[in-house]
Every structure is written in C-alpha cells, then in structure tokens.
Fold this sequence. Notes:
CATH class of the largest domain in chain A: Mainly Alpha
CATH superfamily of the largest domain in chain A: Butyryl-CoA Dehydrogenase, subunit A, domain 3
Largest sheet of chain B: 4 strands, mixed
Number of helices of chain B: 11
Structural class of chain A: alpha+beta
Strand order of the largest sheet of chain A: 1-4-5-8
Shape of chain A: globular
Radius of gyration of chain B: 21 Å
CATH architecture of the largest domain in chain A: Up-down Bundle
Number of strands of chain A: 8
Low-confidence stretches of chain A: none
Order of helices and strands of chain B: HHHHHHEEEEEEEEHEEHHHH
Structural class of chain B: alpha+beta
Strand content of chain B: 15-25%
Number of strands of chain B: 10
CATH superfamily of the largest domain in chain B: Butyryl-CoA Dehydrogenase, subunit A, domain 3
Helix content of chain B: 40-55%
Distance between the termini of chain A: 54 Å
Largest interface: A-B, 41 and 42 residues
Strand content of chain A: 5-15%
Order of helices and strands of chain A: HHHHHEEEEEEEEHHHHHH
CATH topology of the largest domain in chain B: Butyryl-CoA Dehydrogenase, subunit A, domain 3
Oligomer: heterodimer
Helix content of chain A: 40-55%
CATH architecture of the largest domain in chain B: Up-down Bundle
Radius of gyration of chain A: 22 Å
Strand order of the largest sheet of chain B: 1-4-5-8
Number of domains of chain A: 3
Amino acid sequence: MTDLDSFRSDTRAGLEANCPPEMRQPMRSEDDACWGGRNWTFQSDAQRQWLEAMAERGWTVPDWPRDYGGGGLSADETRILKQEMARIGARQPLYSFGISMLGPALLKFGTEEQKRRFLPEIARGEIRWCQGYSEPGAGSDLAGLQTRAEDRGDHWLVNGQKVWTSYADKADWIFCLVRTSSQSKQGGISFLLFDMATPGVSTKPILLISGYSPFCETFFDDVAVPKDQIVGEVNKGWDVAKYLLGHEREMIAGMGLGSGGSLGAAMRPGDPLLRAEIAAFDVDALAFGAMSERFIAMWKAGEAHPASPSMMKYAGTELNKRRNELVMAAGGSDALEWESERTRGGQPARDWLRSKGNSIEGGTSEIQLNIAAKHILRLPGA
Amino acid sequence: MLLTDDQKMLHETAASFLSDEGGPTKQLRHWRDSGCKDGFGHALWRQFGELGLTGIAVPESHGGLGLGVTEAALVLEEIGRNLTPSPFLTTALAAARAIAGSAHGDRWYPPILAGEAVLALAIDEDRRHAPEQTALTAERRGNGFALSGAKQFVVHGASADMVITATRTAGARGERHGITLFAVPKGARGLETENVTLADSSKAARLTFADVELDADAVVGEVDRGWDPLSRAIAAGRAGAAAELVGVAAGSSAMTLAYLRQRKQFGKAIGEFQALQHRAAHLHAEIEIARAAMLKAAQLIDSGDEQSELFTSVAKAKAAAVASLAVREGVQMHGGIGMTDEHDAGLFMKRAAVLGELFGNVYFHRARVAELSGY
Lengths: 382, 375
C-alpha cells in the first residue's frame, strides 16, 4: 500500500466518523452555506460539528501550511481529500472570502506576523471577511478609486465609500483598497485590513433584482487603522489586488458549474427544439469542465498563462448565465413563481436573476476579454 | 490532464516535421493543383513512417510504438494546423485500431509502419454518419460471404490498399449486434470505386458492392460482433478528427491574429479595434476549451474509462463548432483577401467543413450526448 493509498483509507474513515448525515445532503440553496464569523448563528448542531471537525485537522484549507491553521497536505493529498468528500456528498464545511481571496494574498505578500495573526482565524471560520474594492466612481476602472487613507503618524485615517461589498453587513473585517497617493493612478493604491467594528464604518445593504441583498454600500468616516495592518508596501497595493483578483476570478468561474451535472438530465425537456439547445449547452458545459480540470493542473504545475483566470472567468460566467436562461425556459410558468413553497421561494427565478451579476462582479466579461487580448494575444493597443 | 514529458517531445517532433514538410503551400496546394488522384504525397507518407509516426497505434509486438489515442491526437493537431494531406487519421489511427489483435494485423502492420500502405474505413451509407444503421448485406456463400450495397464518404477509398467495410450479417438496421467487418482488398471483383474530390480537395470514394465475394478469413474480428472492432476504430476516429479540428482552429486563428497585428486601416493596426479584440479573445478561449475536451476524451479512451463515449462526443461536437467559428472569423477578419484562392484562409474553412462531417457532425454528437445523459 502506498502512502497515498493509506492516506485515502485514513481520510475515508475520518470523514465517515466525523461528517454528520445532515452535512451529506446537497445544499437546498445558498442559505445552507456556512460562512462562520463572530456573528454567525449555526443553523444546526451538525453544521457546527462539521466545521469544528474539519477545522481541527486544518482541512478547511487543506493545502495551507500547518503553522497557519492549514492541513499541510500535498497537491495529491488535497485532491484525494476532495474526492473522498465528494464520494460521500459532504458539503464544503466553510464558505469564506478569507479562504478563497485574502488567504492566498496574505500567504504571498503578508509579513510572518500577519500570517500568524490572520490565517488561523480564517481557517477556523472565526473571522468573516469582506472585500472593499469597487466604488461608485470606480467599477471596471478599478484603479480610479478615491477612498483616501491619510498617514497620521501612528495610524491611517480612512475616508470614502465602497460599493458592491459582498456581505459587508455580516462581515467582521474588511480587506480594502485605498488611495495613499494621488501622484500615480495604480501606483498610489495601498491594501489595508481593518475591523468593521471600528468607529466610523457603516454599511447599507443593496436590494437586487433577485430580491437578495448580498451586496452593500460601505461608508468610512474618519476610520482609524493601525499602521501594521497594511499588506505589502505603501503604494504597492495594486500588485496585491491583482493577485487576489486572479483567485476571485477562478472562484467565480467555477460557480454553479460542475456541481450541477447534466442540465438535460435534470430538466427532461419535452420540446425538441429546447432539447437541442440544452444538448448544445451540455456539450459546452462538459467541455468547460474539462478545461477547468486542465487549467487547475496547469496552474499548479506553473504551465498556465498568468492571465488565464480571466479567460476562465469569462467563459464560466457566460456559461452559467446561459444555464439559468435554459432552466427558466424548461421550467415554463412554474419557474416564474416568486414566493411559492413549490419553488422554495422562487429559487429558479431568483437564481436566474442573480446569475446576471456573474459576468459583472470581479471584472466584467468585457474587461476579461480586454485582459486576454492584451496579455495572452498581445494585440496592439490593447 | 497534463501531458507527460514523452508526449511533449512527440508533440514537438510532429510540430517541427509538419511545419517544415506539411505546410499548406508545400503539400496541399501542390497536390491539389497538380490534380493528383490521391490528394496526398506518398513520399511524405513514407517520411511519417521513417519518423515512426505511422506506428503510434501499432502494438509493440508488431514493431510499433504501442501508444494511445492521446499521442495520435497530438500528431493530428499538428496535421490540422498545417493542413497536411495524409492518410494518418484513417490508416495509422482508426484502421490500425480496428485490426488490432486479428490476423489482419500481421498482414497490414508492416506496410503501415513503412508508410507504404493506405487503409480506409467504409462506414457511412447515407449523407449522415449513422454506423448502427449499417445495411450493406453480407450473405454467407460457400466458405465465405458475398457483399452487396453501397458506401460513401470513404476517405482515401480510391487510394486504399484495403478497405475495412462495415456490413450487416444479422439483426436489423439500428442494432449493434449483427454487424460484421470485412477487410476488402483493392480491386476486389464486383467492387466499383468512384473517386470523389471534396470541397477541401481531399479524396473520398463512393463504393458500390455488387456481389463481392470474400473468403471467411476476410472477416475482421467475429461474425455478427463487428461492433467491437468498429467501435474501437470509430472512437479513435472521432477523437482524432476532434484533434485535427482543434489544430485547424488554432492554425486559422494564428494566421488571423498575425493579420490583425499587421493590417492597417484608418491609420492603425486593425487589431487595435476593440470590436475585433473581443472576438479574437472569445475565439481563443473557445479553442482552449475545445483542446481540453479533446485531450480528456483521448485520455479516457486510452484508460478504458466508461465515460469515454460521452466525452468523445463532447470533444467532436465542441471541436467542430469551435473550428467552424475560427474559420468564419478567419475569412471575415481578413476581409476581401480572405475570399481569394491565393490566401490560405479559405483552405482552413474547407478543411474544417470536411472534418466537421467526418465520423458524425455537431448535431449527431450533441444528440449522442443527450442520449448518453439519459434525455
């Protein structure tokens, strides 16, 4: 028996012993996800037990170093863990922007002290993070942001406004892009971390067309931030931001895909023309799934183009929008119900409308195509 | 999903050989414009042999490399990129896999290895690919069989030394059981061959079988159980055609991108216009997705995975659709020059159309994906 074989059998036994039956049921909606944080109310004992059991072994972040709360697993071991979780239908124990976005940036750009301070509490789901990037005047042109951080000797003084801050009203801390110099557009941006409970921070949820409010407006009014809570150097925050956006795009590209399986098998379209469109979609979705597998393998082996997450984000989000359009078409008038039990509170329609944001958030499809044209295709003037 | 070092080396060998020897002007235009009856050069085919490429799918026990569909796909991607006319797909991949483990392997592997033999597959009987619908009859007669019926879209059929022919010996159209494969030698009595030139100037034959008598040892595999070797050949053919289509798409797109950088209008390179940049970037993403789907299908076939049939149809459908997009964008973005015979853009368009149809078109494979997914 190889080491990996014994790792697999130990992992299988560990998951069998620790994953409560309820956590092996598919999530009924986004509301079933566990996000953790200071204000989190567990929906059940099973949800709490599952998070604690996984965090105990560092398996909420299996490939992070053990010193920072991770599992210290190799790429092969991480893959086996994921396969074994999928085998029993185990839910992801923790959804977290700390894991998917801030963590990788801290691992690359953070000081040793910052890594030891922030990463373990992310891994255990104790602190929930939000991302302060977009502003009313800085969307696709993100580097045009105006939120200021003034150097006041022993602290930064932050003033300004963010928008589209995901779950800002539920988050404990924010990683935030601020302007520390007006001399240069990209070269005047810094990357700050601060507590959302700091005096001067306020949030206001934005009601979306889906009826959900996953995003907020976030206001900073004379917010004092300790000097050691900057990641990377002053005015070098754009490098951190870009690195993190790569991870965000990877995450968004995979949203809603791969987990769903064949759309046609789920929808059983009777109409032959709809069946044909759904079959065309299933071909594209399965092909994109193959691309995702290949992209991840190439990324880990250092063979992927640095701008390839933009391509994945573009293709994955456009596909997810198409999927939702077809779900609505196949659902007919049933799918239009907004509040009924039958539709679990209008799930198909709300998901359909929510998916429209996929190709806007994290950089629009048009921005991703610009990036691919410039950095991958090297077209002139791009 | 990553290539091994050996596979990367093979890919580089094929790329450098084919870009030197197989380019559109050097091979395709030469044989087209000289009116060659085969549509490809035998000297080049022997060079494939000298490099060992014809032996990729030939078992090691017969002196071949004993490799898989994945390795053949890497060669086919380069064939597509360079529009190289050759019988590689039909002879060295599909037919070589059909005769694996049979006495026909002993007979045909040596000349395949040498790049001397050309083998073809006669499957389609109608304008649409539908192998289960095989109706060409093979009646028992004496110690052998007599074949009657017709085949079409037999690629390299008129140049072939032997044509592997799908016939029906039992069962009804639509059934896999009752299909029998025969190795039909060139010039068999009662076999009439019409050599047809296709849009891309490649050659495919229409074959008419009028009581063609064959010995029992002409059977490939077992009587009534020809689906086993036929499905091996078809799976490899579909994945291989997908690989060649990915190459066609990549070759066409590379040419278009070069033109976007070089062609000036309104005082700047047309590649500076965002309207074209976004279309070029979209196409690039689609080609990468098609390549990943094709490699996954090839790898699943090689590992004998039960999902290989599904992913082979995904790969063929996706690659054909993407190659079609690539060549349409190629002609459009080149403007008027793309409409001229002198320019290569049209050659890519014609090749994509033929490969798109070969071993089942986009609609055939989308329907297969639906059926295999249970709807």
